[in-house]
Here is the input.
Amino acid sequence: MNNIFEPIFEPSFVYLYNDECLTLPTPDECPTLYEICYVQIRNNVVDVLNMTREEIWKLATTISLQDATELLNASATTLKLICREKEIKFWPYRKFFSYKKLLVSPYVCEPTKVVIRRILDSSMIHQFNFPEDLDEKLKKIKQKVYKAENREKTK
Here is the structure.
Protein backbone atom coordinates (compact mmCIF):
# COMPACT_ATOMS: atom_id res chain seq x y z
CA MET A 1 0.00 0.00 0.00
CA ASN A 2 1.26 3.46 -0.86
CA ASN A 3 2.17 5.80 1.91
CA ILE A 4 -0.04 8.90 2.02
CA PHE A 5 3.04 11.11 1.74
CA GLU A 6 4.39 9.43 -1.40
CA PRO A 7 3.64 10.75 -4.88
CA ILE A 8 0.48 9.36 -6.46
CA PHE A 9 1.70 8.78 -10.02
CA GLU A 10 4.06 6.17 -11.36
CA PRO A 11 7.54 7.03 -12.71
CA SER A 12 7.88 8.74 -16.03
CA PHE A 13 6.69 6.74 -19.04
CA VAL A 14 6.54 7.75 -22.65
CA TYR A 15 3.26 7.17 -24.51
CA LEU A 16 2.43 7.73 -28.14
CA TYR A 17 -0.83 9.51 -28.80
CA ASN A 18 -1.66 10.50 -32.39
CA ASP A 19 2.05 10.16 -33.21
CA GLU A 20 2.94 12.66 -30.48
CA CYS A 21 5.23 11.79 -27.63
CA LEU A 22 3.63 12.28 -24.21
CA THR A 23 5.62 11.95 -21.03
CA LEU A 24 4.10 11.48 -17.60
CA PRO A 25 5.66 13.49 -14.79
CA THR A 26 8.23 11.85 -12.54
CA PRO A 27 7.31 11.19 -8.89
CA ASP A 28 9.29 14.26 -7.83
CA GLU A 29 7.11 16.45 -10.05
CA CYS A 30 3.78 14.99 -8.84
CA PRO A 31 1.86 16.35 -5.88
CA THR A 32 1.47 13.98 -2.96
CA LEU A 33 -1.92 13.16 -1.49
CA TYR A 34 -0.89 15.20 1.52
CA GLU A 35 -0.26 18.25 -0.71
CA ILE A 36 -3.58 17.78 -2.49
CA CYS A 37 -5.43 17.50 0.83
CA TYR A 38 -3.54 20.50 2.19
CA VAL A 39 -4.86 22.66 -0.65
CA GLN A 40 -8.39 21.44 0.06
CA ILE A 41 -7.99 22.06 3.79
CA ARG A 42 -6.58 25.53 3.19
CA ASN A 43 -9.83 26.31 1.35
CA ASN A 44 -11.82 25.99 4.61
CA VAL A 45 -12.17 22.23 4.53
CA VAL A 46 -12.29 20.02 7.61
CA ASP A 47 -8.90 18.46 8.31
CA VAL A 48 -9.62 15.01 6.92
CA LEU A 49 -6.03 13.84 7.36
CA ASN A 50 -6.16 14.32 11.12
CA MET A 51 -9.45 12.48 11.60
CA THR A 52 -9.05 9.32 13.64
CA ARG A 53 -10.08 5.91 12.36
CA GLU A 54 -13.06 5.97 14.76
CA GLU A 55 -14.21 9.39 13.52
CA ILE A 56 -14.02 8.28 9.90
CA TRP A 57 -15.88 5.03 10.68
CA LYS A 58 -18.63 6.90 12.53
CA LEU A 59 -18.97 9.33 9.63
CA ALA A 60 -18.93 6.49 7.11
CA THR A 61 -21.74 4.63 8.88
CA THR A 62 -23.81 7.80 9.19
CA ILE A 63 -23.75 9.36 5.72
CA SER A 64 -23.11 8.19 2.18
CA LEU A 65 -19.78 8.71 0.43
CA GLN A 66 -21.32 11.32 -1.86
CA ASP A 67 -22.70 13.28 1.11
CA ALA A 68 -19.35 13.02 2.89
CA THR A 69 -17.52 14.44 -0.13
CA GLU A 70 -19.85 17.44 -0.10
CA LEU A 71 -19.65 17.86 3.67
CA LEU A 72 -15.86 17.62 3.82
CA ASN A 73 -15.29 19.30 0.45
CA ALA A 74 -12.99 16.47 -0.59
CA SER A 75 -13.16 14.09 -3.52
CA ALA A 76 -14.38 10.52 -3.17
CA THR A 77 -10.95 9.29 -4.22
CA THR A 78 -9.29 11.32 -1.47
CA LEU A 79 -11.67 9.90 1.14
CA LYS A 80 -11.15 6.36 -0.10
CA LEU A 81 -7.36 6.75 0.01
CA ILE A 82 -7.53 8.09 3.54
CA CYS A 83 -9.83 5.22 4.54
CA ARG A 84 -7.40 2.67 3.18
CA GLU A 85 -4.57 4.44 4.96
CA LYS A 86 -6.57 4.07 8.21
CA GLU A 87 -7.25 0.38 7.38
CA ILE A 88 -10.91 0.86 6.46
CA LYS A 89 -11.40 -1.27 3.36
CA PHE A 90 -14.59 0.34 2.02
CA TRP A 91 -17.15 3.04 2.78
CA PRO A 92 -19.61 1.04 4.94
CA TYR A 93 -22.72 3.23 4.77
CA ARG A 94 -24.84 1.01 2.50
CA LYS A 95 -23.97 -2.20 4.31
CA PHE A 96 -24.52 -0.57 7.72
CA PHE A 97 -27.84 0.88 6.57
CA SER A 98 -29.02 -2.51 5.24
CA TYR A 99 -28.47 -4.06 8.68
CA LYS A 100 -30.11 -1.08 10.35
CA LYS A 101 -33.21 -1.63 8.21
CA LEU A 102 -33.44 -5.17 9.60
CA LEU A 103 -33.73 -3.76 13.12
CA VAL A 104 -36.98 -1.97 12.31
CA SER A 105 -38.43 -4.70 10.15
CA PRO A 106 -41.49 -6.49 11.57
CA TYR A 107 -40.36 -9.67 9.78
CA VAL A 108 -37.25 -10.16 11.92
CA CYS A 109 -37.66 -11.87 15.30
CA GLU A 110 -36.35 -10.24 18.49
CA PRO A 111 -33.42 -12.66 19.12
CA THR A 112 -32.15 -12.00 15.59
CA LYS A 113 -32.43 -8.25 16.18
CA VAL A 114 -30.24 -8.62 19.27
CA VAL A 115 -27.58 -10.36 17.17
CA ILE A 116 -27.81 -7.64 14.50
CA ARG A 117 -27.46 -4.91 17.16
CA ARG A 118 -24.27 -6.60 18.39
CA ILE A 119 -22.98 -6.78 14.82
CA LEU A 120 -23.62 -3.06 14.32
CA ASP A 121 -22.10 -2.11 17.67
CA SER A 122 -18.89 -4.00 16.91
CA SER A 123 -18.82 -3.11 13.19
CA MET A 124 -15.63 -1.08 13.42
CA ILE A 125 -13.74 -4.11 14.70
CA HIS A 126 -14.88 -6.68 12.13
CA GLN A 127 -15.77 -4.27 9.26
CA PHE A 128 -18.50 -6.69 8.11
CA ASN A 129 -15.95 -9.37 7.30
CA PHE A 130 -17.72 -12.46 8.68
CA PRO A 131 -17.05 -16.19 8.63
CA GLU A 132 -18.83 -17.88 5.73
CA ASP A 133 -21.53 -19.56 7.85
CA LEU A 134 -22.55 -16.31 9.57
CA ASP A 135 -22.40 -14.45 6.27
CA GLU A 136 -24.77 -17.00 4.69
CA LYS A 137 -27.21 -16.75 7.62
CA LEU A 138 -27.27 -12.96 7.38
CA LYS A 139 -27.82 -13.10 3.61
CA LYS A 140 -30.76 -15.48 4.11
CA ILE A 141 -32.30 -13.16 6.71
CA LYS A 142 -31.97 -10.22 4.31
CA GLN A 143 -33.52 -12.26 1.48
CA LYS A 144 -36.48 -13.34 3.64
CA VAL A 145 -37.16 -9.76 4.71
CA TYR A 146 -36.85 -8.52 1.13
CA LYS A 147 -39.28 -11.17 -0.14
CA ALA A 148 -41.76 -10.51 2.68
CA GLU A 149 -41.69 -6.75 2.05
CA ASN A 150 -42.17 -7.24 -1.69
CA ARG A 151 -45.07 -9.65 -1.11
CA GLU A 152 -46.63 -6.98 1.06
CA LYS A 153 -46.22 -4.37 -1.70
CA THR A 154 -47.84 -6.57 -4.38
CA LYS A 155 -50.99 -7.21 -2.31
